C-alpha cells in the first residue's frame, strides 16, 4: 500500500477541535483503545464471512482516522474497505495495512506517554519587568484585574505571605500599601 508520510498530524487534529489539546488527546487515546485489536477483529470477521460488520469496522476506522489527522491510516484504509465491500476478502497486501495500524497505535501511545514540556523559567528580567509594570499601575491607581494580578504575582519571587498581603491590599484598593510591600520585597 502506498503510505502517505503523515502517521499523526497533530496540528490538523487540533484544528478539527478548535485547538482543544485535551480533547484531542482524549479522542486519540480512545481511538487507540478502540482499534488496538482492529487487525485481529477484521481478520476474524472476514474469516467468519461477516462482511457487513467487517465493512462497518474498516469504514468507521477510516473516518475516525481522517478526522483525527491519522492520514496514513486513513488513506491505507480505503483499499481495504473497497476489498471487503466489493471482493468480500482482505487485499493481498493486508500485512502492510496491519503494520500501519500498529504503527499508528504506537504513535498515539507515544504521544500520550510524552511528558508535558516544563514551564519556562521566569528570568530576572521578566520578573523585573512585571514588578515595574505592577508598581506603575499601582501608582497610576489603575484598575488591576484578577488575572493580571495573578500573572504579575506568579512571576515575582516573593514569599507567600507577601504575595497574599499585596493581593489583599489590591483587593481593598489600598494601592499605597501594595506599593510598600512590593518595594520592601
Automatic annotation (TrEMBL):
Listed GO MF terms: protein kinase activity
- Keyword Lyase listed? The answer is no
The UniProt keywords, alphabetically, are:
Kinase, Phosphoprotein, Transferase, Two-component regulatory system
Coiled-coil region(s): none
**GO BP terms:** phosphorelay signal transduction system
One of the Pfam families matching this protein, by short name: Hpt
On this chain, the residues bearing Phosphohistidine are 59
Looking at the record, the residues that make up the HPt domain are 20-118
Q: Which domain of life is it from?
A: Bacteria
Keyword Phosphoprotein tagged? yes
Question: Which InterPro entries is this protein grouped with?
Answer: HPT_dom_sf, Sig_transdc_His_kin_Hpt_dom
Name of the protein in its database record: Histidine kinase
Amino acid at each position: 500500500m502506498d503510505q502517505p508520510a503523515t502517521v499523526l498530524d497533530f496540528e490538523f487534529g487540533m484544528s478539527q477541535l478548535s485547538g482543544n489539546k485535551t480533547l484531542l488527546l482524549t479522542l486519540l487515546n480512545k481511538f487507540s483503545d478502540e482499534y488496538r485489536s482492529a487487525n485481529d477483529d477484521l481478520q476474524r470477521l472476514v474469516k467468519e464471512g461477516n462482511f457487513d460488520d467487517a465493512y462497518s469496522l474498516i469504514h468507521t476506522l477510516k473516518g475516525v482516522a481522517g478526522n483525527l489527522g491519522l492520514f496514513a491510516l486513513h488513506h491505507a484504509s480505503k483499499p481495504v474497505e473497497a476489498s471487503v465491500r466489493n471482493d468480500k476478502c482482505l487485499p493481498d497486501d493486508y500485512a502492510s495495512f496491519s503494520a500501519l495500524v500498529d504503527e499508528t497505535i504506537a504513535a498515539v501511545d507515544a504521544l500520550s506517554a510524552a511528558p508535558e514540556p516544563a514551564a519556562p523559567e521566569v528570568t530576572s528580567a521578566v520578573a523585573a519587568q512585571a514588578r515595574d509594570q505592577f508598581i506603575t499601575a499601582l501608582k497610576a491607581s489603575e484598575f488591576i484585574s484578577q488575572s493580571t494580578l495573578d500573572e504579575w504575582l506568579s512571576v515575582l519571587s516573593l514569599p507567600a505571605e507577601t504575595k497574599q498581603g499585596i493581593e489583599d491590599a489590591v483587593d481593598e484598593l489600598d494601592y499605597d500599601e501594595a506599593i510598600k510591600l512590593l518595594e520592601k520585597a
